[in-house]
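User: I've been trying to design a sequence by hand for this structure and keep getting stuck. Would you show me what you'd pick, starting by listing the structure so we're on the same page?

Assistant: Good idea, let's start from the same input. This is the structure you sent:
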């Protein structure tokens, strides 16, 4: 089959509309869905229980807040230094390893907070517990990248986009349920018991993944033995010790240097950066209005709006329509936030927050283009870079909008973040609309044959039509 015929066949498959039922008809997708559900529930309960445990031990609100977020802080390091391993190791093994790491972390935290003086074992120091959670967060992008990169192997064409929508909707709902379930567990078992139950959830996810998913090969081969022996002993030792870091940095640079990939990454990072930053100011805004209880209502409304938006666009919009809706939906992220300038009450704030969060469905129009643009050999790293960059952008956005709220009233800071979202979306309108089309193998998409391959010699590791994928 010629390259043109391949491209036409792929385009036809991408434009053929799928359904959520078709996604769940695939056994491996059900496995991924189940393990993702257990993962999000477990992580939500873990963060809540660990924060409560630290507060009970120290009485410090600052340390409790740090305990709640500390697992996210080091993920940027993992995203910058380790992501190449997502393509050099077998994905199922990586996903199981991530689950088992969570099991060990939760067991140590749970047992370490029990107070085992009668056994000659004192409580684990808080600083050690914080360091453990911090260290366990470093490789987290690696595990999530492996999971994201497997989904296109399980679901093809439009079903892949709907599968991503299911994951996003499930994550939003599972976070809300996890907070509610976590509160109940804390009341019944205490924080240490909740942490041990979280370890059991992670163990269940590991078992489901190990025996439910097919064992797929690594996408990008590791450096060969002959290549290592061809170099000096000193250089070979350095390659073994730093090869993953060097490869991750090199491929990240190549991905960001690629005009098409960079545009799609920025289009996925920057609009939510300021939109989520506005959510970080809901609590001080409503507290200042004398409705501290309303902060939970507004945040829950935002989570619900995100889930409804993802479901509605995924269920009722055809693939081509989703891509046409990308720009207006991205504008929806910011436009409702302008309403906060009128200083709404709890009900009005909840409605505006839900409407703005529904605009996050714009990402569904980017997913197929991103998958088609990144090279197969670096797919895991590309998805990992997409996720870790988004988390970092959201953290920076929260800090930025929070800083603005120190200078102006909170409701105006939220409205200004809406202005920022609109400005960013208009600046990225070409990437959001998909103006850079054309074949990514030629120069029309801005590609400059970056060194995606494991050898780094400047070759493009994307398989040609006559070659099997790595």
């Amino acid at each position: 089959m010629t390259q043109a015929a391949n491209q036409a066949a792929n385009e036809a498959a991408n434009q053929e509309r799928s359904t959520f039922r078709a996604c769940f008809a695939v056994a491996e997708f059900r496995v991924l869905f189940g393990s993702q559900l257990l993962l999000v529930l477990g992580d939500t309960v873990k963060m809540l229980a660990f924060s409560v445990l630290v507060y009970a031990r120290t009485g410090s609100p600052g340390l409790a807040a740090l305990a709640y977020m500390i697992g996210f802080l080091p993920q940027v390091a993992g995203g910058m230094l380790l992501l190449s391993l997502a393509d050099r190791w077998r994905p199922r093994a990586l996903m199981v390893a991530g689950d088992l790491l969570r099991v060990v972390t939760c067991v140590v935290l749970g047992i370490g907070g029990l107070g085992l003086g009668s056994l000659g074992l004192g409580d684990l120091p808080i600083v050690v517990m914080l360091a453990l959670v911090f260290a366990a967060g470093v490789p987290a992008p690696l595990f999530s990248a492996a999971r994201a990169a497997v989904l296109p192997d399980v679901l093809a064409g439009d079903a892949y986009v709907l599968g991503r929508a299911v994951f996003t909707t499930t994550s939003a709902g599972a976070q809300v349920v996890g907070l509610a379930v976590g509160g109940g567990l804390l009341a019944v078992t205490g924080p240490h018991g909740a942490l041990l139950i979280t370890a059991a959830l992670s163990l269940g996810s590991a078992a489901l993944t190990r025996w439910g998913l097919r064992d797929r090969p690594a996408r990008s081969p590791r450096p060969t033995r002959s290549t290592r022996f061809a170099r000096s002993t000193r250089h070979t030792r350095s390659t073994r010790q730093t090869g993953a870091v060097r490869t991750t940095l090199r491929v990240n640079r190549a991905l960001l240097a690629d005009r098409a990939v960079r545009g799609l990454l920025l289009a996925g990072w920057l609009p939510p950066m300021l939109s989520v930053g506005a959510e970080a100011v809901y609590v001080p805004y409503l507290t200042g209005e004398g409705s501290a209880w309303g902060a939970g209502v507004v945040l829950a409304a935002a989570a619900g709006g995100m889930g409804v938006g993802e479901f509605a666009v995924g269920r009722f919009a055809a693939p081509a329509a989703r891509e046409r809706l990308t720009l207006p939906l991205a504008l929806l992220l910011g436009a409702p936030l302008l309403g906060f300038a009128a200083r709404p009450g709890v009900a009005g704030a909840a409605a505006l927050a839900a409407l703005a969060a529904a605009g996050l469905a714009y990402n569904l129009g980017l997913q197929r283009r991103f998958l088609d643009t990144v090279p197969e050999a670096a797919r895991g790293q590309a998805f990992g870079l997409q996720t870790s960059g988004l988390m970092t952008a959201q953290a920076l956005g929260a800090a930025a909008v929070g800083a603005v709220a120190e200078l102006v009233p909170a409701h105006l800071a939220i409205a200004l973040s809406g202005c920022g979202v609109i400005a960013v979306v208009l600046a990225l309108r070409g990437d959001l609309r998909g103006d850079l089309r054309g074949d990514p193998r030629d120069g029309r998409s801005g590609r400059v044959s970056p060194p995606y391959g494991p050898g780094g010699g400047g070759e493009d590791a994307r398989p040609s039509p006559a070659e099997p994928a790595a």
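That's my pick for every position. To get oriented when you compare it with your attempt: The longest helix spans residues 158-212. The radius of gyration is 23 Å.
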